[in-house]
Amino acid sequence: MKTKTLTAILHKEEDMYIAECPEVGTVDQGETIEEALTNLKEATRLYLEECPLLDTDRKINCHA
């Protein structure tokens, strides 16, 4: 399985971390950085299953 590396942009709003994947346009949040990244990976995976913008045979790794 090929790996596709995507970007994760993180910022903090009050007591939550917001994570965004600009290549796909997905956004999610979490109480910790790790939770925000995990949620973003899941949101991005689900989005790409429905709206394949990239080669979905690839594993998604978002790196901050």
A few lines on this structure:
This protein is of the alpha+beta class and 64 residues long. It has one helix and five strands, in the order E-E-E-E-H-E.
Helix content: 25-40%
The total beta strand count reads 5
Radius of gyration: 11 Å
State the order of secondary-structure elements, H for helix, E for strand: EEEEHE
What summary fits the major beta sheet?
3 strands, antiparallel
| Classification by helices and strands | alpha+beta
Strand line-up across the major sheet: 2-3-4
Which spans of ≥5 residues are poorly predicted at pLDDT below 50?
none
Distance between the termini: 22 Å
The shape, in one word, is elongated
Indicate the proportion of strand residues.
35-45%
Number of helices: 1
What is the average per-residue confidence, as pLDDT, rounded to a whole number?
85
